Amino acid sequence: MKKINRRIPPALLAAAAGALALGADAPGRVEPTAPARTAYLTSTPWLEVVEKEVPPLQHARADRWPMIMWHDVGFAPLDANQIQMLLARGLTQHLRLDQGMIDAAKALQEAGSPVIFMQGDAGAWPYSLAADSSAWAHQFDAGYHYKMAGRGALGAWHGACPKMIAGWELMADQVRDTLGAFRAAGVTVDAVWMDWEGDPYPWSHLFKQLAHCKRCRVQLPPEVLADEDQYWAYYWRHYQQLYGAYLAGPVREIFPLCSITNWHTVYSTQTRPLLYFVNNRALPPGIPPLFTATNPVAYGNDKFWQTAWQDDYPLDQRHVNQFHMHNLLRQISGDTANRLTYGPEVASFPWVARWCPIVNHQEDDSVPYMSREAYREALRHMWLRGIDGMQLFNAWREEYEEIALFEVLDAVAVYDEMLGYRDFLDAGQVMNLAEPAVQDEGVLWSGLRLEEQAVVRLFSQGEGAARLELEVWPGHEIELEAPTEGRTYVLGRMDTGVEILE
User: Please, are residues 411 and 67 in contact by the beta-carbon 8 Å criterion?
Assistant: First the structure.
């Protein structure tokens, strides 16, 4: 099958536009925010936008984690009413690993919010913390010049020799010193969920530099320099090992009960390999050391569309939804399956987003995305597949500002809905971790089971409603309807069999 590697051909776009005009199920594309709405969103503090636009939860969150947002409310100390407003919506302010934010952390703690750190960094950091670049930067052969690319989709930089760890040691000391200052000020840091994704995360452009580095030719296995797949696997393992040793370890020294994860930290195994979120590359087997939580990535993104959509797939909204549903659920499902086997005490806090343009960081309105209704369906199934919270990648993009709000609205609405089944979220056994196919006309279902009750969600991805027979408990089966709009059932185990309670 021929793959579409770039944008949708103009002829198909025209056909889809014509179908839309006729009322057919044409694929949706993200439209820019209306000017009046843009003016409102850009002139109003985000805290006020959230209070006005996002309804409070109707179900008690109790001690479950609030969600954090990428486009957030800033880092200044909030008053108790502002913090309670966010918590009432299942949200909270996140802070950075910065001693200047101790007062903001105190305000959160006193108002009853967990103190959560999250911040991003990339490039050659933390290697570059070592002031003398000769202690970490590639030592290129005479005459070789690596041409720095524009930032593009992911950026390109003069890479670091992965074995040179002076900068990592400095970072670990900074983590200890900063967290120690918070502890001395009476603040308990509840979570450190970093978005640190620099070297040695296996960005493809870094591989091209290795063979030209005199130091790496000595320090690294020759197959890592010669084969990109070997490079990718080696760097992936090294990335998780370094952050375990120099981030998770120091955090545990200061706050032993702290929740700790980092960007794309996941459990991948030989029996259940996880697939990368922008293509079908299998992540190498690995169990991240010392982390207390994983961080799967569930992004509806254009890069995956460009690498995986095939031109014999029907170009309508239902099949576009199937395509993105596959990508959104596969990493979370596989990670949960592996955690339940190799680390059942480990939690999971995925990054989630319906709309995530990656290619050149430019909005490409020719790429169809899943509908908001389908995205909400995906979020429901994430909660019913054993995650413990969500980080909302509601990035702020010029001319598409309203998307940052939609991401929050959808996630909060589904969190509220799922909190109606809080006992199951707290103690339920995950019932199904099968991943839907990239084009799946069947029934998608997920559920959590207690001793005598279960909650299950069924959703037909086909043209019409379907029925599915489920073995809810061993030897106890029931046939349930799966409508195209989805339905959640509460089931009970009775002497007479399984019955629908709600």
Answer: yes
What tokens appear for 353 in the block? 């987003």
- 477-489: burial string, b at 16+ Cβ within 10 Å, e else: ebebebeeebebb
d(CA 343, CA 329): 20
Beta-sheet strands, E only, within 197-339: 259-262, 293-294, 297-301
Residue 354, exposed/middle/buried by CB under 10 A (0-12, 13-18, 19+)?
buried
Concatenate the DSSP letters of all residues of 231-270 into one string: HHHHHHHHHHHHHIIIIIHHHHHH-TT-EEEETT---B-S
Scanning the structure block, which residue is given the tokens 């770039």? 6
For the chain, first and last CA: distance in Å?
45
The type of residue at 183 is: R
User: How far is residue 270's CA from residue 233's CA, in Å, rounded to a whole number?
Assistant: 13
| Among candidate residues 241, 327, 250, the one with its CA nearest the CA of residue 284 | 241
The SS3 call for residue 29 is coil
pLDDT of residue 9: 38
DSSP 3: B
Pairing of strands 453-460, 487-494: antiparallel
What single string gives the DSSP state of each residue in 145-161?
-PPPPPSTTT-----B-
Are the CB atoms for 57 and 89 separated by under 8 Å?
yes
Burial of 79 (0-12, 13-18, 19+ CB in 10 A): exposed
Side-chain half-sphere CA neighbours of 336 within 13 A:
26
Cα dist from 83 to 72, 113, 114, 200, 299, whole Å: 13, 7, 11, 37, 28
* Interval 107-154: pLDDT, tens: 999 999 999 999 999 889 999 999 999 999 999 999 998 765 544 444
User: 229: Cβ–Cβ under 8 A, 6 or more apart, which residues?
Assistant: none
State residue 69's pLDDT score: 98
- Reported as half-sphere exposure (CB side, CA atoms, 13 A), residue 329 has a value of 30
Q: Which two tokens stand for residue 147?
A: 């041409």
Report the pLDDT value the prediction gives residue 25, as an integer from 0 to 100: 72
Cα separation values, 232 from 15, 137, 226, 252, 420, Å: 40, 19, 11, 29, 42
Taking 70 as the pLDDT cut, the residues of the chain under it are 1-24, 147-157, 360-365
Predicted pLDDT of residue 388 = 98
Place of tokens 């309804």: 55
Quote the pLDDT of residue 7. 37
The pair phi, psi for residue 475, each rounded to 5°, is 80, 5
Across-strand partners of 446?
457
* The predicted structure's pLDDT at residue 148: 57
Taking the C-alpha atoms of residue 324 and residue 444, their distance in angstroms, rounded to an integer, is 13
pTM of the model: 0.93
Task: Name the DSSP letter for residue 188.
Answer: P
